[in-house]
TrEMBL record:
Record's protein name: Mercuric transport protein MerT
Described function: Involved in mercury resistance. Probably transfers a mercuric ion from the periplasmic Hg(2+)-binding protein MerP to the cytoplasmic mercuric reductase MerA.
Entry keywords, A to Z: Cell inner membrane, Cell membrane, Membrane, Mercuric resistance, Mercury, Metal-binding, Transmembrane, Transmembrane helix, Transport
Taxonomy, superkingdom: Bacteria
Any one Gene Ontology cellular component term annotated for this protein: plasma membrane
Amino acid sequence: MNIEPDDNTLKTDSPAWPMVGGVLAAIGASLCCAGPFVLLMLGVSGSWISTLAAFDPFRPYFIVLVVGLFLWAGWKIYRPLDPCSADGFCSVADNRRRYRMVFWLTSLIAAMLVSSPYWLVWLMA
């Protein structure tokens, strides 16, 4: 019985890719609103910062992408797995537990980024 997966199984079945994509899409969704605020807090200034507001029409598409990628990652993490498949690969509970912790942490970060236009107003007031 083989406990360790081969490299191809780990790369194609890993929920890490949709989580990374979800966080990147959340950054894209908050680029119009949180981007200028973060840049100003870091001391970066210039008239080009106002051009980040041009991303505002794409915000709904980024939000749909964030939700879709995190639903896909959640399905990959929480789907029931057989203890051992026909090819001898056995799922390891510690890996799934780590993926679940990372999933909820990245979901929280993505939710903060997507909702940033609403709570940044209170923070800046």
